[in-house]
Amino acid sequence: MTRFEITGASAADMEMLRTWADEEGWNPGDGDRYAFAVADPEGFLVGRLDGEPVACISAVRYGAGFGFIGFYIARPDVRGQGYGIRLWRAGMERLDGRLVGLDGVVEQQDNYRKSGFRSAWTNMRYSGVPRSGDDSGVEIVDAASLPFARLAAYDRRFFPEARDAFLSAWTALPGRTALAAVRDGRIEGLGVIRPCSSASRIGPLYAASPEVAAALVRRLAGHAPDGEVAVDVPDANPAAAAVAAGLGLAPAFETARMYTGPAPELELAGLYGVTSLELG
C-alpha cells in the first residue's frame, strides 16, 4: 500500500523545486531559493509518495494578514491521482484567515476560481534584448548605496505587507544587480535582475514614470550575459505594456494575479514588473 505524506521542504528539496519549475518552463532565478527560505522558512511543502517527492507548493505568510501560494507542481506521472489537491489543501490551511494571492497559469485559473480566487489583473511576460535609448535624464544608482529602510519603505507601496528580510536577500544575493532611480533625494524607481536558465529575469520593476522604467530595464539588461531579459508585466498598469513593447520586448508567457478577497490597495501606476510568480 502506497503512503502519501506532506513534509516541510529541506534545502535539497528547495533545489528540486527550482528544477521542477524550470521543467514547467517558468524560468526561475538561479538563487531565488535562498531569498524564498528567508521569507518564510516553513512556507514550502513537499508531498512524498513512499518517501519519493512527487508534488510541491509554497504557502508563504507575510505579516499578520497576507499569504501567497506558488510552486504548485505535481510530477506528470502522478497527476490526476489526488496528490496535488491534498497538497493544495495543506497549503491553503496554512494560510487560513489571510487574504491569499497567487499568479496562476492559464490552464489552472478555472480551478483556482473554484477555490475562491478571483482575477485582479493579467501578467504578461515580455522578453528579448531591449532597444537602446537616451536615458540621460534619469539618475540611476546602485540600490545598495541607499539606506535599506528607504528601499523597504518604497517596496511597501507595491506589496500588501512588509517583507524586509526577503527584500534584503532578494536585492543582495550574488549574481544579481539591484538599481534605483533617484531624483532630488527621492527614490523614483527600483529594479532587480537575476540570472536564470534562459533570459535573465527583472523583478520587481517599480518606476515613477515610463521613462524611468525604460531606463532601468536598459541599464539592468547590461548585467545580463547576452542582454536578454524577461519581465512579468501587469496589465493593471497600461503604461507597463507600452514600455515593454517600446523596448522591443515580445510577449511570451501569461499568468493571472488572483486573490481570495478584494485586491489590496497598491500603487499600480508605478508597478511595471512583479517580483516573483512564486512569492508575489
Report the span from N to C terminus: 38 Å
Largest sheet: 13 strands, mixed
Rg calculated over all Cα atoms: 18 Å
Q: What is the approximate shape?
A: globular
- Unreliable stretches: none
What's the rounded overall pLDDT mean?
Answer: 95
Report the count of strand segments. Answer: 13
DSSP helix count? 8
| Approximate strand percentage | 25-35%
The helix/strand class is alpha+beta
Helix % is 25-40%
How would you describe this protein?
The protein is an alpha+beta fold and 280 residues long. Helix content is 28%, strand content 34%. The protein has 8 helices and 13 strands. It has helices at residues 11-23, 32-39, 83-94, 109-114, 148-156, 164-172, 210-221, 238-246, and strands spanning 4-8, 44-49, 52-62, 66-74, 99-105, 118-128, 139-142, 177-183, 186-194, 200-207, 229-234, 250-259, 271-273. Strands 1, 2, 3, 4, 5, 6, 7, 8, 9, 10, 11, 12 and 13 form a 13-stranded mixed sheet that branches. Strand 3 (52-62) and strand 4 form a beta hairpin. Helix 2 (32-39) runs antiparallel to helix 6 (164-172) and helix 7 (210-221) packs across helix 8. It is globular and about 65 Å long. The protein starts with a strand and ends in a 7-residue tail after the last strand. The relative contact order is 0.18. The mean pLDDT is 95.
List keywords for this structure.
280 residues; alpha+beta; 13-stranded mixed β-sheet; 13 strands; 34% strand; globular
